[in-house]
Amino acid sequence: MAYxxxxxxxxxxxxxxxxxxxxxxxxxxxxxxxxxxxxDxxxxxxACPTGAIEQE
Length: 56
Prior knowledge:
With 56 residues, this protein is an alpha+beta fold. The protein has helices at 14-18, 43-47, and strands spanning 3-5, 24-26, 31-33, 53-55.
């Protein structure tokens, strides 16, 4: 099950730098996770300073 970024995202980019498969990119208003590329490792959720990443 992939992770998703909630509205609590402040677009700091920490998660994108931590993703081992490059599944996170800047979207129109905040960062987004490509569910097809996400390997469900949870690294991004642990790195997010605002707790904006959760499992779908």
